[in-house]
Amino acid sequence: MTRLDTQITEIMSSPVRTTDSQTPIATVAETMLAADIGSIVVSGPDGIVTKTDLLTAIRDDEINAPVATVMTESVVTVSPDADVQTAVNRMQEHQIKHLVVNRGGTPVGVVTTADLAAQLATVPDSIISMFAASSTPNQLNRYECTRCGRRVTADTQPKQCGECGAPIRNISVARD
Predict the structure, then answer these.
(1) How do residues 41-59 score in pLDDT, each as one tens digit?
(2) pTM for this structure?
């Protein structure tokens, strides 16, 4: 078995930390700091909030707002029986750094790019392609709707397409 064939449950973080969509951003930030984690799964409506989302809220002076105002609603998931290669592909396709592992619609774990990098330490091409996206703030990127194909240029990724409401993906990064 290669490192890419490893089952995702062997590298995922578990149990999953969750919160309600109406929880104040400040409370979520405190939980993430105390637990030393980079994301929390949100329920009602479903979403995920990351440290980057929290930094945006702090910048915009929104720390008392509900976490629903900064979370990503289109949660990308993978099943527990998926392998590492599937997780890498899914994260590259959606340009995300946190992937929720779902069993029967219930989150059972989270896999991050750091988890994958540790697993793939001897597979340099996989690591390079995972981190190919620029992390420079305020850099303009191209985004495309996953449903209608509408394209926009912006410094931050829109939550959804302004035309049809579908998820948006970053197309600024070359894909193999």
Answers:
(1) 998 778 999 998 998 898 8
(2) 0.66
Distance CA 113, CA 22 (A): 28
Quick one: which of 105, 113, 112, 103 has its CA closest to 82? 103
Give the SS3 label for residue 116: helix
Q: What is the SS3 assignment for 40?
A: strand
Query: Which residues make Cβ contacts (< 8 Å) with residue 91, sequence separation at least 6?
Result: 76, 97, 99, 113, 116, 130
Tens-digit pLDDT profile for residues 24-38: 999 999 999 999 999
Could you list the beta-strand ranges (E) of the chain: 18-20, 39-43, 47-50, 77-78, 98-103, 106-112, 141-145, 151-154, 168-170
CA dihedral 88, 93, 94, 99 (to 10 degrees): -20
Asked if 140 contacts 154 with a C-beta cutoff of 8 angstroms, the reply is yes
Q: Please, where are the H alpha helices in the chain?
A: 25-35, 51-59, 84-94, 113-119, 124-130
Omega cis (within 30) before 24:
no
